[in-house]
Design a protein that fits this description.
- By secondary structure, the protein is an alpha/beta fold.
- 45% of the residues lie in helices and 21% in strands.
- It contains 14 helices and 13 strands.
- The strands form three sheets. It has a six-stranded mixed sheet, with helices on both faces.
- Helix 2 packs across helix 12 and helix 6 packs across helix 7.
- The N and C termini lie far apart (84 Å).
Length: 351
């Protein structure tokens, strides 16, 4: 069959248009990928803390896997959220932990509802070390002693950093006292302070009876002789038993995993009522600008799935006393929203 010149021109124009459309599609697909320099801001200003350490372990492997230049930047929570707000292209990502939603529940300025304002990315790790400690020579030998003392009218002062992970255990303890000793919960008093060193100093100076700390930051003080003013004892780890059971057998420092298990449920319990006890795992996860392309979300999910399947990243996390905890974005978002709802009830009960 012979084609006319007009028909050939039409076919040619159609081909050009189809090629342009395909080229545009390819360009769009390319746009929906991480590329160039990617800044990963974190909700901490410390390059020695657990947020920076967790982020670096994962981001270094993600950068290598994708062949992209990625840098972790410790800018603090307020600055991190503002920076993320300004960049929907995917050149800025964020990693933080549960404080990102707890701050909102506690009404801390600068914390919005992350589930409305941002897209939740994958979870990456748990810090199992969130802890409460007393001086080595404290009359309180256990958390039960503290609950009973408060219930009988004694004032017990707890040094915390308000508005987040540091406060949630205090809130749970106060809620448990309200359940077991109604009307006595106000005898548990928060000493609001700042960093871990500030909380430690409150204990050293006798300005607090209990402090929120961590296994990583405070284990060294539990090895001091009782005569030392800085000597401490663990009375409670908020992590779930199954979380601590995943830690290395040697534990941390001179405190083994079996010794750490003495301070979690079922050996130490903080009731939430209805036969349910409070536990809390401090979990780290990505957050994205709400307008960031779904292609980048999928790309990171797929890359981290492959990285965690290889197993090297888990070894690095465990060596740093973190528990591997990868959940892809959709699963992580649903899980963290459920988690927030659970703790929202505790905060509401004591306010």
């Amino acid at each position: 069959m012979l084609l006319s010149r007009k028909t050939l021109m039409s076919v040619s124009v159609a081909g050009v248009m189809m090629g342009a459309a395909l080229g545009s599609g390819v360009a769009m697909a390319q746009d929906a990928q991480l590329r160039g320099n990617v800044r990963v801001v974190i909700g901490s200003t410390s390059t020695g803390g657990d947020t920076y350490q967790n982020a670096s372990i994962v981001v270094d492997r993600l950068a290598e896997h994708l062949g992209v230049n990625m840098k972790v930047d410790a800018v603090g929570a307020s600055s991190a959220f503002r920076t993320l707000d300004r960049d929907s292209r995917g050149n800025t990502l964020m990693i933080f932990h549960d404080q990102s939603y707890l701050g909102h529940l506690y009404g801390v300025q600068g914390y919005d509802d992350i589930f409305e304002k941002y897209t939740i990315g994958p979870t990456i790790a748990i810090n199992p070390g969130n802890a409460y400690l007393v001086p080595m020579d404290s009359p309180y030998q256990s958390l039960d002693d503290i609950i009973e003392a408060v219930g009988s009218g004694e004032t017990v002062r707890v040094a915390i950093q308000p508005g987040g992970v540091s406060e949630i255990g205090f809130s749970a303890l106060k809620n448990a006292i309200a359940i077991e000793h109604p009307g006595q919960e106000d005898n548990l008093v928060a000493v609001n302070t700042g960093s871990q060193s500030d909380k430690n100093q409150q204990l050293f100076d006798g300005q607090a009876d209990v402090i929120n700390g961590s296994v990583q930051a405070n284990e060294q003080y539990t090895r001091l002789p009782e005569s030392d003013q800085k000597a401490m004892r663990f009375v409670w780890l908020t992590a779930r038993q199954e979380t601590i059971e995943q830690a290395p057998e040697e534990g941390l420092g001179q405190t083994t995993r079996d010794q750490l298990l003495e301070y979690v449920e079922p050996n130490v319990t903080v009731t939430m009522g209805d036969d349910e006890n409070f536990t809390f795992d401090k979990e780290f996860f990505f957050l994205y600008n709400k307008e960031m392309d779904q292609g980048i979300i999928d790309q990171i999910d797929e890359a981290l799935t492959e990285i965690f399947d290889e197993g090297d990243v888990q070894e690095a996390q465990l060596n740093a006393f973190f528990i591997p905890d990868f959940k892809p974005s959709a699963e992580a978002s649903e899980y963290l929203q459920d988690k927030m709802s659970r703790y929202q009830d505790i905060i509401s009960n004591i306010n």
